[in-house]
Design goal:
Oligomer: single chain
Helix content: 25-40%
Number of strands: 4
Radius of gyration: 14 Å
Strand content: 15-25%
Order of helices and strands: HEHHEHEHE
CATH superfamily: Response regulator
CATH class: Alpha Beta
Largest sheet: 4 strands, parallel
Shape: globular
Length: 116
């Protein structure tokens, strides 16, 4: 699955008719940025996004790496965390609100940002 298809699937939440095989050794890197509180790890593992990514063949720790940043409501940290994700060279950033996405837009003109 190429990067464009991965980003499109992630953004749209669309289930492709068939899952494509992943290139061996390729790890997709997703950055999450949210001004919300950090959920417990158990909550993260039960999220609909997590289940859908697994169903599509993207398994965290195998071919998917997820960098998560939560500010717990401290908006002063938002710019710092956005910069960290850009510097971590993730393939795509998922922002959970328009306010979260705004911090990333001015940091990179080439990094895809998906707003959920």
């Amino acid at each position: 699955m190429d990067r464009r298809h991965f980003v499109t699937t992630l953004a749209a939440g669309v289930v492709p008719v068939r899952a494509e095989a992943q290139a061996p050794g390729k790890v997709a890197r997703v950055g999450f940025l949210s001004s919300a509180r950090r959920p417990a790890d158990a909550e993260l593992q039960k999220s609909p996004w997590h289940f859908e990514m697994q169903r599509l063949g993207w398994v965290e720790g195998r071919n998917l790496a997820v960098e998560r940043r939560f500010t717990d409501g401290n908006m002063d940290q938002l710019a710092t965390f956005a910069r960290e994700l850009v510097e971590a060279r993730v393939d795509v950033i998922v922002a959970l609100s328009e306010r979260d996405a705004a911090e990333e837009r001015h940091l990179s003109s080439t990094l895809p940002i998906v707003l959920i």
